[in-house]
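Task: sequence design from structure.
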């Protein structure tokens, strides 16, 4: 059995910034066990919460608060869970300031995408964990 991290919101849990979830039918191998995580909650952020975006090496909310420490703490806690469960793969929420992989919002709060990773995706990659978005595993 292979343990794989997965964003909790993709499993239908209402933990996103807007208090919603983004459930998707994931097409994953039968021998994969999903280990759910929400880095933003594990970093101490409430649900719902003010939207945040990455601006260089900091994470700012739309109303101007620096939440960088929360994002870093959540990424570190997620990495600990990956280590405990020996996960070498993660399926994370696309475009998220924490979980986004390859493309994230650019920090202007205009829904403009740019190349880059969220805090958690970046840290997991640095530790040789393969990171994918839900788009890589959606059925249909």
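Answer:
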């Amino acid at each position: 059995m292979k343990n794989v991290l997965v964003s909790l919101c993709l499993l239908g849990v209402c933990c996103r910034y807007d208090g919603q979830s983004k459930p998707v039918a994931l097409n994953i191998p039968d021998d994969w066990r999903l280990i759910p995580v929400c880095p933003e909650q594990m970093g101490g952020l409430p649900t719902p919460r003010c939207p945040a975006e990455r601006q260089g090496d900091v994470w700012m909310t739309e109303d101007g608060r620096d939440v960088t420490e929360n994002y870093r703490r959540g990424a570190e806690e997620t990495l600990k869970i990956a280590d405990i469960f020996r996960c070498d793969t993660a399926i994370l929420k696309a475009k998220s300031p924490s979980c986004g992989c390859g493309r994230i919002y650019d920090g202007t709060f205009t829904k403009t995408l740019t190349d880059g990773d969220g805090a958690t995706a970046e840290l997991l990659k640095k530790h040789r964990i393969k990171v994918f978005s839900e788009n890589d595993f959606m059925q249909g």
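Helices lie at 39-42, 68-84, 119-126.
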